[in-house]
Amino acid sequence: MYLVCLSFTLSSQKYYPEIVKVEFEGNIKTLDYIINREIQHQINTKLDSVKAEQDRNRIENLGLFSQVEWKVIPLEDGTATLKFIIIESIQRTPPFALPTYEEDTGWSLTGFYLINNFKGKNQSLVLGGSIGGKDTYGIQFSDPWVFGNHVSMNFQFGKTLFQHRFLKKNLEVNSFNLNFGKWFGEKLKTQLGIEIENKIFLDKNINDSFFYYSPIFTVSYDTRDVYWNPSRGVIISQYLIRKNGINPKSFSLTLWDQSYSIFYSKEFFDKKTVFAFNISSKVKSGKKEEIWLDYFGGQATVRGWELPDSSLYYSGSEDFRFGHESIYSSIEIRREIIPKYATSLNIEFGLVLVFFTDIGFIAKDFNTINYQEPISGTGLGIRIPFPIVNVIRLDYGWGFYNNKWNSGSLHFGIGQKF
User: Fold this and answer.
1) In what order do the strands lie in the sheet with 65-74?
2) How far apart are CA 291 and CA 102, in angstroms?
3) What is the pTM of this model?
């Protein structure tokens, strides 16, 4: 009867009991300390619902759970327990093969063995390979707390062979990558790494080979509440990589990528609507040869344009889509249709409808980018939360350039565009 009265009090008026214990329910595989290190609500203090919700968001952002909720359990002495109810998502796949698609390489038959929560410690281990549009094999391992509080490590190595997206060349890439990361507080995130890569461009007449090492530095300022579909916050990121030639020694290329995103949400008819804005730029310096060209189109830059192939590139009919330097922005309105939830199979599901507009400039040299006509695209798409990859994305858009609309293009992607 006492608990019934307390439950009535909790639902009918403000209820701020002293929290004397934090508990977790539903984490069958994930070790308690992996979740507990995300908790910032103090015990032996009054309930702070804002902190409890922030703790819930941090647990969800681990990417291990289909659903995370919290509730207060009253105790007979007037204190309470803060309990997080967790439904674990799929965290491991048996060794198997299935068709996969990437915009740059097309369809492949991919076989892999993935553990997304190795030993229940939020470590990730992937062994895999593919044949088809991309022939590859490799291994990847990551641990977000390998040396303590948000000090991470990630390494991967492998070999990949595929046909270049728009040049009449095949690529053979052998690579090794090792990164260490460190968070400073909850918002400032840094990563420092080294990449050693041998990249060979093959065609009938000549082979261009580049063997180089690349220091990599990434820093971001991130205040998003949840990662898969943020409703508020900003993320500002800087990515810098310097490719230094080993053979040939004369080769060098520096890439600097910047991204600025902001998210804001409102409730309309009891459904969350997120207004999201991003502006990004890519700058290069060094030996900016044809084989390092970028392009607009596909799911990552300006949507609504078909992916370029060699016929399009060599025809010269859309030269305005290729360059080394670019700046582009996106506006998305993300309307939640089905809120994310865990199905009876413990798999997350939901549905978000998106309206988007992209616009950008691309040029061979940044000094001439102001003289380029803008390339834009607009359309709509859907986002579906999914285990391991977080989000499946499908967009259809129509491109616009020089006062003309094109016939449109369908784009498939993993994760949000920004």
Assistant:
1) 45-46, 18-25, 80-88, 65-74
2) 20
3) 0.88
- Decide yes or no: CATH 2.40.160.50 for domain 164-329: yes
Distances (CA, A) of 418 to 122, 180, 224, 396: 24, 23, 12, 17
Cα(8)–Cα(75) distance, integer angstroms: 14
Closest alpha carbon to 230 in 340, 114, 153, 366: 340
Please, are residues 20 and 83 in contact by the beta-carbon 8 Å criterion?
no
Distance (Å, rounded) from C-alpha 321 to C-alpha 409? 15
Q: Closest Cα partner for 62 from 39, 93, 38?
A: 38
Q: What is the DSSP string of 34-93?
A: HHHTT--PPTTEE--HHHHHHHHHHHHTTS-EEEEEEEEEE-TTS-EEEEEEEEE---B-
User: What letter represents residue 173's amino acid?
Assistant: V
**Eight-class DSSP state of 258:** E
| Residue 248: cis peptide before it, omega within 30 degrees of 0 | yes
Amino acid, single-letter form, for residue 362: I
Sign for the pseudo-dihedral over CA of 290, 293, 295, 298:
positive
Determine which helix (DSSP H) or strand (DSSP E) holds 145, and give its type and residue range: none
Q: What is the mean pLDDT of residues 296-324?
A: 95
> In a 3-state reduction of DSSP, which class is residue 318?
coil
The Cα–Cα gap between 5 and 304 comes to 58
Question: Which phi and psi angles does 293 have, rounded to 5°?
Answer: -65, 145
pLDDT at position 161 over 80: yes
Q: Please name the fold of domain 2-88.
A: Ubiquitin-like (UB roll) (3.10.20)
pLDDT at residue 205 in the model: 77
In the chain, where the domains are located: 2-88, 164-329
Q: Phi and psi for 285 in degrees, rounded to 5? A: -145, 150
* β-pair type (18-25, 80-88): parallel
Bridge partners of 178, per DSSP, are: 155, 194
